[in-house]
């Protein structure tokens, strides 16, 4: 719960605080107001795109920081008529405030540019089918940068994607962090092959861990390695964290796109039920290499590069 409250304070609290400060501040100049308005709007846009709590509380809440910023900027603009364009050069404090806010605006602008770049599909991306059927899904981690993808710092997992399902309220579970695995919408969902290929490795039998506990000795948990003859040298997919006893294929099996591979669980290095998928170049049979040392390959699903907080209806990708 403390992790959730911290993330909620960061993603919602900071934009709302800036909105309040912008709405009720008395700017000494129009430049002072402009920098405050840009900072308020920039932080709200950043949290809208990269905030990590939307799948917890519902994606409808994403509009709150944007609406608060727009309202604050519009409300504060009413005071500009009697303000000079630039602050007085005789006073040090207003100038210092301008410099500070200017630096903060430049910082958030750089972060927004990074977000934009992380959302663009890298060259050489391989296109696949979406590996889940039925319902709405959201991306917890995904994209080409650390601001959107927890896995980006690991070379082999630089373009990994973590997927959860959403219930009719737009949340990934019934409750903030319920203890029951079946309270998570994605738990026990069928995972299907996103391409024609050959199963190059499997693992099953690892237990589904309680919420918040992980198994660092078996990070992929129950999983399937699938070699797909796409791209220049083909790729090996890792689909991980399957439910114990659910893996439906064996090494050497030839599968067609849409073939059942297993069901989503919470095995391995997984704090809650989700499907992890990423690709590496060539044919690999060692899960350790696929997780840590192989060359990452970016993926698109039916032409779409999926990044954090993207919401997908499967029919949109078929």
Summarize the structure.
This protein has helices at 2-24, 30-50, 54-57, 63-76, 92-118, 287-292; strands spanning 126-128, 136-141, 161-166, 190-192, 197-203, 222-228, 235-242, 254-255, 260-263, 275-281, 296-297, 299-301, 311-313. With 318 residues, the protein is α+β, with helices and mostly antiparallel strands. Strand 6 and strand 7 (235-242) form a beta hairpin.
Structure, described:
The chain is α+β, with helices and mostly antiparallel strands and 318 residues long. The chain has 2 domains: 2-118; 126-316, Glucose Permease (Domain IIA) (Distorted Sandwich), CATH 2.70.70.10. The protein contains 6 helices and 13 strands. The chain has helices at 2-24, 30-50, 54-57, 63-76, 92-118, 287-292; strands at residues 126-128, 136-141, 161-166, 190-192, 197-203, 222-228, 235-242, 254-255, 260-263, 275-281, 296-297, 299-301, 311-313. The strands form 3 sheets. Strands 2, 3, 5, 6, 7, 8, 10, 11 and 13 form a 9-stranded antiparallel β-sheet that branches. A hairpin with a 6-residue loop joins strand 6 (222-228) and strand 7. The two termini are 37 Å apart.
